[in-house]
Design goal:
Blueprint lengths: L1 H11 L10 H15 L1 H16 L11 H30 L7 H22 L5 H25 L7
Helix pairs in contact: 1-5, 2-4, 2-5, 3-4, 4-5, 4-6, 5-6
């Protein structure tokens, strides 16, 4: 489903990436796009704080209720995946040709939407969360494989430069 979503958005959404000739310009563009991927994490932190305040726990460091635990776990996992996502996206931006830089905001949007889907499905039940997690993890795995291919096959002479 993820490749179909990315391909459909790439073809049908009417925007193009700006001209980014240098590596530093591409990294700044990636950083700006990645700020939008933090939206589900910040929203999760807000909801986690509100649910912690509204819980009926008398001990602040005691056993958490299921509702509080869901939001806390979601935020923790999302931060870990965002770090992996951001570093892979930064490396990907250096290897992509100019005409494919439109993938950077599309992958950012997919990350944000898939984390929200994971959060909703995790709140429904733990057995339903596989769809949202796979929509987050499989594009991340594809980016990692493309980055390794780019580093070791396409440009092995520039590996450490």
């Amino acid at each position: 489903l993820c490749p179909c979503l990315i391909y459909g958005a790439y073809i049908f959404l009417p925007f193009d990436a700006p001209l980014l000739p240098t590596v530093s310009a591409r990294l700044v563009y990636t950083l700006r796009c990645a700020t939008f991927a933090t939206f589900p994490i910040v929203l999760g932190m807000i909801v986690s704080g509100i649910s912690r305040l509204c819980s009926s726990a008398l001990e602040p460091f005691g056993e958490l209720q299921r509702e509080v635990e869901i939001h806390r776990t979601y935020v923790s996992q999302s931060v870990h995946l965002f770090i992996l996502y951001f570093f892979n996206m930064a490396v990907l931006a250096t290897y992509l040709p100019q005409e494919l830089l439109k993938l950077i905001p599309l992958l950012t949007g997919l990350f944000a939407i898939s984390r929200l889907i994971f959060w909703m499905s995790y709140a429904i039940g733990r057995s339903f969360r596989a769809f949202g997690f796979s929509m987050t993890f499989l594009p991340l795995l594809a980016m990692l494989l493309w980055n390794l291919y780019g580093m070791f096959v396409l440009e092995p002479e520039n590996l450490l430069s």
